C-alpha cells in the first residue's frame, strides 16, 4: 500500500517537473476529456449513485453530473483570462519598474472527496486543480464504493494517467497519503477528520482547504402573503430532504420560527412533503437513502433520547434493512440533546420555536459558525442584521442551496465550518500560488538608496514614502532643508 | 532577581475570553473604531520615533536610517493606506448570480474573523508586529500581539505604547517567550499570523489544527540571486549589497542568501562587489555605523559555525572579520562553497554571501529547484529569454528582476511564501483580505419558482434541467420545455 502512494507521488512529481501540466493546452485537453467522460458515462454515473445512495437521476443530474459539466464549461470559457498575470499598480516613483501577480500551479495536490456527493465533490476540486496546472491525486470516499470504482475505472481512460491518479481505499490509505508531502491538500468532510488532515499537513507546511460542515439553520420569518409562505415551505422542504436526504453540508439542519407560526408551518410542511414524496416516501423513489448502516444507526441514535422522541410531530418510520428513514419533523426537542448539538446529516428536521424571530440571531451566535445560514424574510432591516451580526460561510435569503450554483461566489466555510474556498475562479486560485513579480531596469538609479547614510538621503526616502513628489523636487533642486 | 509572573494557560484563556466578549459586542466592526485604532497606530509611530529608533538600536544596533526607513516609515505607510482605502475595502462586492436562479442578486461581503493572534519576529520587530496588526484591525478584528522576546526593548516598548494608544478592550500585547507563546497557542483563535522560521511554523500550524484555525505563515528560505553576464555590474552590485547587508545585515527573510553566476563572470562580479562594499561601509566595516549587529550570541555562534566548517574554510574571498564582544561579523563573501556544506543547507540569515559559480547561467535553475521554494528569488540580466525562463520555471513567494527586496514596499503586490517559505500573503489590500472572511450572499424573491425544482421527478423535468444547468443556449432551453 505504501508503495502505491510513493510510486504515484514520485511519478506525478516527475510529470510536474517536466512542465507538462503547466501548458494551458494540456489543461484544456484534460478538462475536455473529463467533460466527455461525464457525458459518455452518464447512465453509469446514475447507476452508481443509485447503488451508493439511492439517488434519483434528477437528483443525480442536478447535484452531481450537471454541476461537473457546468464547472468544466465555466472553467474552459475563462481559463485564458485566469492564467494571465494581473498588473499591479506601482507608484510613479518606481517608474519604469513594472509589477504583476502571476498565478502558478502549486505542484502535486491531494484531494479527498466525501461520500454524499461522491461525483461532484470529487471532480469539482479536480477541475480546479487541473485548471491551475497541477498534477492531482484524488481519493474518492470508500463509503460510496460504486462511485469510487467508477471514477477509478474511467478517469485513466480519458485523462492523462501520468498526471491524474485515483487512489481508492479507506482510513488506512488516507493515513498513508497524509504521511507524505503534498503541495496542497483539499479536504471535504467532517471537522474531526479535518483536524487530522490539517495536523498531518502541518508536518510538511502543506496549505489546506477544508470544506467542512455544521448545523445550517433556516430562519423562517412571518410572511404575510400566503403564496410567499407556500413558496418558502416548498423551498425549505427541497432544501432539507432534496439533497441526499439531508446528508448535505449546505442542507438545512434545523428551523427557527416564531412559536405562534409553528402550527401553520408544520401543517404546510406536511402538506408539501406529501405532494413531493407521497404518503409513502420510501416507495416514491424521489429521496436518497442513508449511505450505510453506521450512519443509519448514528441518525437513529439521535432519536433515542425519550424527550427527543416525544417531540416528533411527523414521520418516524425507519427501515434499517433498506437504509431508509422517512422525513421526520420534530417540534422543540431539548436544546442540549445530541440532535441539537451535532450536525444531523439526515432527514430529521427539528423546528425550534422562539418568542420573537429576532432571537434567532443570538441563537445562531451561541453555536459554532455554520457553512450557510438561510433566512426567509421580507424585512430588509432583519436581513441587514442577519448579515452583520452573524457569521457563516454564506447567507442565502429566500431560497436554499442556490449559492452552490453561482460560480462568481466563493464557496467555503468559516470557523468550524472550514476555511479556504472554491467554485469558479476561486477553485483556480485555491490551487495556485500568486507569485509577485517585479521587473526593474538598471536606470534610473536612486543614490539615496545606498549607504553611507546621511540626512539628505533620509529626507529623500521619507518624502518618497509619502509619495511627496513636489517635496522630492524641492529637495533635489536644493530648495528643501534636510 | 524577582521572577516575572508567568502568563500561563489560565491567563491565556482569560485573555481570549475577554477579547471574544469584546468582539461579540460588535465594537471592532464599526468603521469608526477601525479608523480610530489605525490613527492610534499612526500616532504612536509618529510621536515616539526616537524611542523606537532607540529600542531597535538596543535590540539590533540597527542604523537609524534602517529603523526609520524599513520599520517606521513602512508602518506609517501601511496605516495611511489602510485609512485611505478602508471604506472601499469594506464595501461589499457585487457578484454575477447564476442564470439558473434568475431572478436573484449576489454579493460578497467582507467580515472580520473575530479574535486574531499575531506572533512577530525579532529582525524587524516593530514592522513585523504592527504591519499584520494594521491588517487585522482594518478588517475589524480584535487582536493579540506577541512580539519576539529576542528583541526585548522593542517588545517592551510595543507593550507600553499599544497599552497607551490603543483600545485595550480589543487590542492587547502579551510579552514573553516559549512558555507564553505555547500558552497562547493552546487557545482557539480565529486566525493566527506567524512570522518566523519553518520549524516553529510547523508547531504553530499543528496547534492551529486542533481548533481548525486558519493560518498565515510568513517564513523564509534561501533566496537566490542569479547574476547573468553583460549587465551593469555597478548597479547590480549596489542593489545586491543594499538588499543583503543594508537590510539588517542579512538578517531578513528576503535578503539575498546566495549568488549564482557563471564561472567566467564570477571574478568580475566579486571585484565590483568588493569595490562597492568599500564605498558603502569603508575599510573597517566592523566599525561601520551603517550596519546592524548580529542579534544575539546564539545567532552569532550559529553564523561563525557556518564560517568555520571545514568544507568552507579557505573559501572566504572578502571579509570574514569578527568582533565577538560586539556581536559583529564583517560583510563576508565566499566563492564555491560546496552544496553539502551547512551554509548551503540552511537559511543563512546573516552577513555571509556565498557565490556559486556554474558553467552556464541556465544551470542555476536546477540548482535553485533542487532546494525548497524560497520566499524571494532575484535575477540580474538583460536577456528577455532568461527573464521569461526564470519567471516561468522558478517558484518563489515573490521575484524581482534587476533589483532586490523592493517588492516588499509595493502594497499592490501580495507578500507571502509558497511551500517551505510559507502560506498566505499580506500587505496593502491583501492584509485586509488575510484577516477577513468573504461571505457569499444570495438574495432571491418569491417569484420565479419553477416546478421543475421539486419532486415528483419526471423525465420531462430531467431534460429541462440538463439544458439549464449545462449552460445551453436559450433556444435549447426552450426546445427542452416541449
TrEMBL record, chain A:
Pfam families referenced in this protein's UniProt entry, alphabetically: Aldedh (PF00171)
Start and end residues of each Aldehyde dehydrogenase domain: 5-437
GO MF entries: aldehyde dehydrogenase (NAD+) activity
Cellular-component GO terms for this entry: cytoplasm
Keywords: NAD, Oxidoreductase
Keyword Membrane found: no
Any one biological process term the GO annotation gives: response to water deprivation
Active site: 211, 249
Gene3D superfamilies, per the entry: Aldehyde Dehydrogenase, Chain A, domain 1, Aldehyde Dehydrogenase, Chain A, domain 2
Keyword check for Oxidoreductase: yes
InterPro entries: Ald_DH/histidinol_DH, Ald_DH_C, Ald_DH_N, Aldehyde_DH_dom, Aldehyde_DH_NAD(P)
Reaction catalyzed: an aldehyde + NAD(+) + H2O = a carboxylate + NADH + 2 H(+)
PANTHER family, per the entry: ALDEHYDE DEHYDROGENASE, ALDEHYDE DEHYDROGENASE FAMILY 3 MEMBER F1
Family of this protein: Belongs to the aldehyde dehydrogenase family.
Protein name as catalogued: Aldehyde dehydrogenase
The species this protein was found in: Rosa chinensis (China rose)
Lineage: Eukaryota, Viridiplantae, Streptophyta, Embryophyta, Tracheophyta
UniProtKB/TrEMBL annotation, chain B:
Cellular component, GO annotation: cytoplasm
Gene3D superfamilies in the cross-refs: Aldehyde Dehydrogenase, Chain A, domain 1, Aldehyde Dehydrogenase, Chain A, domain 2
A single GO BP: response to abscisic acid
Gene Ontology terms, MF aspect: aldehyde dehydrogenase (NAD+) activity
Catalytic site: 218, 253
Reactions it catalyzes: an aldehyde + NAD(+) + H2O = a carboxylate + NADH + 2 H(+)
Entry's transmembrane regions: none
Domain Aldehyde dehydrogenase: 14-441
Family to which the UniProt record says this protein belongs: Belongs to the aldehyde dehydrogenase family.
The protein, known as: Aldehyde dehydrogenase
Organism of provenance: Rosa chinensis
Classification of source organism: Eukaryota, Viridiplantae, Streptophyta, Embryophyta, Tracheophyta
